[in-house]
């Protein structure tokens, strides 16, 4: 049985979201049904689109155009020129997508990029970002960001903080929660019964026995030992400079790194265009393309849908894994 269609939010309609949604439909068609939540008037001129009134209509509508579940916006969308007056509607679309996926009308949520400054300027958006808003809607305290491509899945333990702040932020509870959430998601959403997780050290050469730092000895190793005792298959702490080449990647299903660039540099080097952002720890599936609104190229027909297509395909695979479980 095919899962319900995937809900795709419009993101900031002045960015590349509308055009990459159309390009994704052109590539996927009815083979992977999804529907866009947004204003049909914001789509590129001449786009093939079918307005639907219920997500159940998406598969039929996708045979001849991009299915669009219409949502009213107060202002037109001018590519490259964000309109703060549309901010409230952008936020409403995200909440609507969450409601649809939680009700079962959609099998997963894929989100097009937003611009946080526009949302703050236009609607006093109180959240640091997209992910935090989704967590608030779901009533979840802690979520985990995974970046995934065909060759690598990687999770940063600390994310958008300065490098100087990482050692203090890297606590045992944070690392333990990150590993538990990652392990659970690999089992539930990726169908891996006994996932192997490689864990980086924080310091060069994983601290080299304390010579280059003690975070491995005082934080990372105790957490790994405690979780191994519970049955998690954890490898490390490993020196980050030796664990992302092709042969090393065959030894694990996902890597957990200690900070943002330690995780994202390898995956963006391996597959810059096809990486997918996945939020783990939510009660529903959420994926997104690994790029921003790209106001500088919006409306010019230059935006690639590679990452969005990958995000939709991964959402579909995750939905099928949950359905099978």
Strand order of the largest sheet: 3-4-2-1-5-12-11-6-7-10-8-9
Radius of gyration: 20 Å
Percent helix, as a range, is: 25-40%
- Helical stretch tally: 11
Q: What's the CATH first level of the largest domain?
A: Alpha Beta
What are the secondary-structure elements, in order, as H or E?
EHEEHEHEHHEEHHEHEHEHEEH
Cofactor: Zn(2+); Mg(2+); Co(2+)
Protein name: 4-hydroxythreonine-4-phosphate dehydrogenase
Subunit structure: Homodimer.
Organism: Tranquillimonas alkanivorans
Descriptive account of the structure:
The longest helix has 19 residues, at 172-190. β6 (144-148) and β7 form a beta hairpin. The two termini are 13 Å apart. The chain has helices at 17-28, 58-61, 87-103, 116-123, 130-138, 166-169, 172-190, 215-229, 246-249, 260-270, 306-324; strands spanning 6-9, 34-38, 49-52, 66-70, 108-111, 144-148, 153-156, 196-200, 233-238, 254-257, 276-280, 286-289. The protein has a twelve-stranded mixed β-sheet with strand order 3-4-2-1-5-12-11-6-7-10-8-9, sandwiched between helices. It has 325 residues and is α/β, with parallel strands linked by helices. The chain is globular. α3 crosses α4 (116-123) and α7 (172-190) packs across α8. It is built from eleven helices and twelve strands. The chain has two domains: 1-142 and 274-325, Isopropylmalate Dehydrogenase (3-Layer(aba) Sandwich); 151-270, Isopropylmalate Dehydrogenase (3-Layer(aba) Sandwich).
